[in-house]
């Protein structure tokens, strides 16, 4: 991501010590939420200016927004907001084996409904590549992305493509050129929105996301 | 709840050993989700026919639906579905001190949006009684419920009232009579919907909520 | 329905003496509404605790809710509310010869719109079996149900199936197992929701459905 | 209505011999629908070119559209479609004593939802004049209309006013001038839309509203 | 249009001296809006009772409504409002070469969204005939209209057809009969709605569309 | 804006030579659109990497997106997309004398509807300061902003504030602190979104906004 960040932005990546190996199910999300929020808290205490939750399922997003005062940005939310300014309807290309796609499709659909973007989401398709194999199966990924992206455009009526996984990073401009459609890489979308909020000196509304008061919380 | 359950229904209540003291924030929810899902798993293994997640925030609902094959029912979801069959628009009476109401109101609004019921929710009001004081402050609770319930009806245009907390149990028929409006007690709503699903021999769709495959998940 | 009802529930079935032979059109509904409402009135006078209007078109539902104080339940409304708690989107399998399907599809679509569930209804398909032949053509019905149900799931994206006619009763668990999706039988859905409302001691809101005042009404 | 109709339009008014004295409840509508549809059938047989169902509740509208091939027009539907082309949001001024307004408000809200215009309806208010007293209490009606109309505009944000009853006919231009907002008289709206459809030689879609096939229908 | 207008209506057609040759893009619309509004102003000054903006893109519609007090009617808005009263969902048949259809489809979709009719628009298809060739390629136009109209009905689920261009005038009743669906010719729809508003003596709401105050505006 | 831009961003401001003095009406917009689009074309030819249309009415936005390949950003669209990521519902504070507010409110409401954000917009209020007096009446502006902002939050339920005019620039952090809510300054929002798109190397979808083909367009 270094070529996309601003010169005075310093990015540090932190992996969760707890949680699931990958986030494919709502069940995985239940394991991921608390460790994610706790990591966000550590980041604020360590003096960072903003936090990106690096997963397209946006786990713990609203909880972290309550607990933190620095901006907290989610990959999915940031991506579809940018896509919404580039065209009329977008298609999401999810990762993960196709037999689990039902659950993932519905989780994405529910997120679209929750963010109020369901009518702008023309298409949810799967690339049928395991999330943990995204890096090593790069060629298959690109090939699938071109096939599914074209179908999202020609059959489903999408005019903009959103990758549906944080793991798909070294993609982008070539695929976008071949598809003749803008392609949103979620990690970049979140990076730029996070930089934007920091530079504008705004953060999540504390009316909407007030600081949780102290109480006993066992984990 | 014993007078409302069917004669051949056996109800067992299990409290979480981990998690927050009460669920008022999204932050609390991040602590509650995994212990809730794990408790649901134990219930299925122990041979129960269905599970109720006893909290109006429906923590871990979709995650548990994936992991279990027996029906999993949420208080909020069950309540608003019943309310939707009794009138045109409903008002929700949340509990908790009014200074934290912003966050709670938005969390409820987001759930309404997510369940697709936002246009049926005419009113979200707070009773300004701490969740943990609901039992000892019973008279204040009733008094507030009558005031806020009437305003929900007369000002906000609600015709049905939904209590917004699992803790408000010994209420109901008197208040309903005074307000001249049906009053949904979430725990009862969830109990009856759970009995209904068990007796109809249906459960959550495994297309929508497929069994999560095995992987490493650290908690 | 006896194996699904509770032990202390007594069900009596009453056929309309007037009205259409079957309800396939809005035109049929105009003939069915008043006799239906009048039969509901007789049921309340006879001391019943609740009424089910046994038709997927929900004829006279709101009118009867005004006139009665005991709960009045409609097959379509009850079915889609239960389906909505089992998955993300449902498909409706209507009965009746396919050349009349246009009208029926639109009537169902309008009901979905009126109940506020249009975005959850992924699919409306016809089984192409005459309503009055549903009993004798049972094998054809099952075969069609499997075909159309699979297409509703695979092509239209439904994850839950709702039968679209009160006449389809002896179906259910086998079909559900073959489709790997929950299948809602409307008559059972209405029975259980009716029992639920009676046991919760709630009924339709008299703010939403006030008692009609006396006036001359000629029929 | 004579000064508003076209010179070659002949209008005949027919009263129902059966049905309720006035249509204020869903219960009244159950009495009104069949006689209304039957009267529409007689009109088509008698050679009329189009039919207006003269009631703001649009009773029997879709049933008559199935049975007839000539255009069938409803007062409510026609009024809100015209209002929708004159401004951004409209307010409906219903008639009838205010203690029954709950039911009427919800019936109107449901019609708005059914027609897909709920988001354009900023305001539903009652004039608190009995439907059957509309003619003799003309001054009170006008006074109430000015009060409620102004509040619909200033408080509820309406920019166009729709009368909510077919009985309010000799109103219009003065009130509109005083309110500085267009005022739709439902009977005129329906008359002009009916003339429009006849002159354009179009009628309701027989795909959406196919002719009901013959069967036994007892009334 | 003479056979459709009322006997005492006088229609004058005025072509813009400035603006684009045809309106196919948002870019064309930027050229068309001001000349259109200026022509509307001239019409009001010349004493006309109402104005039709003769283009399916409705250029300058709201601007002209502010500046004028006589009714201003747009082809697209009038057409879909009439279609909405004839069936449940409509299909729009746009003109113009298919390689520019992406932009046109989105512009129409945005108009549907803006008018609040997106859920009633089942289908947007292109006839692949250049706008300026509509007159000379009449047979091709009819042939394409039958093909695309049938697919709109059978595949997309439309029950009513709306032509998507002001230039398609000498079409209508034959095509409608072959498709067995009502067909809305936009110019006629606008003509009849304009006559309707004039005869009802109503015009656009000056609350919604107030007269712009004087200021320097250079063109 | 210099303290908010990135170090390697160069901003040039160009005023329209034609068009209205200020944009308060749809009528003004008709004068502004073509000069705006032409100025955008000049910017692309002059080698700029992106264009901001500096007006909250987003005049010519989609037309310019067709004509240009570099990103074109609108103040209103950018602002509400950022606000949507900071809270649940936002309030817009428009400028301009209150007697013209009807028209402006509806224009903003229509834009919200068009962008698909109507349900997130809790409040549209006017500051009752002439657009052209925004600079000299700075104290009055701030005072009004605090009053209306508080009412937007407490009465209308907004949790985030969006300024509704490009002219209000030297505001922001103090007001935001007093209101305890994030405050979006449209010009900054557009600046940061424009930088974001340039750095991500994406631009508007040419499927949604194809290059207009050459034809005669007179202005």
Form type of chain A: globular
Helix segment tally of chain A: 7
Terminal CA distance of chain A reads: 34 Å
Characterize the quaternary organization of these chains.
homohexamer
Largest sheet of chain A: 4 strands, parallel
Helix content of chain A: 40-55%
Largest Cβ-defined interface? A-F, 49 and 49 residues
Strand content of chain A: 5-15%
**Cα radius of gyration of chain A in angstroms:** 17 Å
User: What structural category do the secondary elements of chain A indicate?
Assistant: alpha/beta
Number of strands of chain A: 8
Low-confidence stretches of chain A: none
Helix and strand string of chain A, N-terminal first? Answer: EHEHEHEHEHEHEHE
- Order of strands, widest sheet of chain A: 5-4-6-7
How confident is the prediction overall: mean pLDDT of chain A? 90
């Amino acid at each position: 991501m270094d070529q996309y960040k601003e010169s005075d932005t310093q990015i540090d990546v932190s992996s969760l010590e707890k949680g699931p190996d990958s986030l494919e199910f709502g069940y995985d999300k239940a394991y991921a939420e608390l460790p994610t929020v706790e990591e966000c808290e550590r980041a604020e205490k360590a003096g960072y200016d903003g936090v990106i939750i690096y997963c397209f399922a946006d786990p713990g997003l609203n909880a972290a927004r309550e607990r933190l005062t620095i901006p907290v940005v989610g990959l999915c939310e940031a991506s579809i907001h940018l896509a919404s300014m580039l065209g009329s309807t977008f298609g999401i290309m999810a990762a993960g084996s196709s037999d689990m796609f039902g659950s993932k499709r519905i989780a994405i659909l529910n997120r679209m409904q929750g963010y109020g973007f369901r009518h702008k989401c023309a298409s949810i398709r799967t690339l049928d590549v395991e999330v943990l194999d995204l890096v090593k199966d790069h060629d298959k990924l690109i090939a699938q992305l071109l096939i599914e992206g074209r179908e999202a455009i020609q059959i489903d009526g999408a005019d903009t493509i959103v990758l549906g996984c944080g793991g798909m990073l070294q993609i982008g401009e070539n695929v976008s050129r071949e598809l003749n459609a803008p392609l949103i890489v979620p990690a970049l979308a979140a990076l730029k929105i996070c930089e934007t909020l920091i530079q504008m000196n705004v953060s999540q509304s504390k009316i909407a996301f007030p600081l949780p008061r102290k109480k006993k919380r066992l984990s």
